[in-house]
Amino acid sequence: MKSNASSHWQQLTREGLWSNNPALVQLLGLCPLLAVSTSVVNALGLALATLMVMVAASTTISLIRHQVPSAVRLPAFVMVIAAFVTCAELLMAAYAYPLYQVLGIFIPLIVTNCAILGRADAFASRQPVLPAAIDGFMMGLGFGAVLILLGALRELLGQGTLFSDMALLFGSAAAGWQLTIADDYQFLFFVLPPGAFFVAGMLIALKNVLDQRQRSRASPVVAPRTERRVRVTGTIK
What is the pTM for the complete model shown? Predict the structure, then answer.
C-alpha cells in the first residue's frame, strides 16, 4: 500500500511540474502568463497568488464535491475560486500594495484562469481531499515555475538585469537584490508582448525536445533485420 501511495504522489508531482504542466502542455492561463512576466517580481507575485488560489480551491471543491448538484457544478466552482481570489487580492493589497498596483487587473482575472477551473473540474471534484490538495499545489507550482522562468528570461534579455524592483514584494530589505548583468542595455522586443510569445514558444519547444529524447532513450533498440538468401538446387515433387 505504501509503494502504491508513494507512486501516486510521485505521479501527481511529475504531472504538475512536467508531463502535464498547465503552461507548457495544457497551454492554459496564457493571458496572465504572457502579460505579467515582464520581470521576476511581477511573475513571482502572480505565481504566489495563483498557487494559493489553486490549493485552496482544489481542497474546498474536493470537500463539497458530494453536496454540489451536477447541474450547477461549474458555477459553484467559479464561486469558490472567486472567493479565494478575493482573499488573495486583499492580502496582496494589504501586504504588497505597490506590487498590487503594478499587477492591476490580472489579480482578479485569476478567476478566469482555465488552469484552475479545468483542474478543479477534472480532478478535485472526483478525488479525496489530500490528493486534490497535492494536485492543486503541484499544478500551481508548475504554472508558477514557468511564469517565474519566463519573467527571468524576459527581464534578462530585455533589460540586462535580474531581480529588479524586488522591494515591491519583499519591502525595503530587498532593495539591493538586483543583479545587473549588462549596464545601459535594453532590448524592448523581449519586454513587449511579441517577446513573451517568442520566449514562451522557445520554452515549449525545449520541453518537447527533451521529452522526445527521453522517449528515444526509453524505447528499446530493435536490431535491423537481416535477410539471407539461400540457393536451393534440386527438384521439388
Answer: 0.88
Provide, for the chain, the percentages of residues in helix, strand and coil under a 3-state DSSP scheme, each rounded to the nearest 5.
Answer: 70, 0, 25
pLDDT for the residue 231: 57
Q: What is the pLDDT of residue 225?
A: 63
Closest CA to 117 of 77, 149, 161, 176: 77
Backbone angles phi, psi at 161, to 5 degrees: -130, 170
What are all long-range contacts of 65-68, with beta carbons under 8 Å and residues at least 24 apart? 65/124, 65/125, 65/126, 68/125
Grid-cell match 448538484, residue found: 69
DSSP 163-197: STTTHHHH-GGGTT--EESSTT---HHHHSHHHHH
Quote the pLDDT of residue 1.
Answer: 56
Strands (E), the chain: 161-162, 179-180
Which residues of the chain register pLDDT less than 70?
Answer: 1-3, 220-237
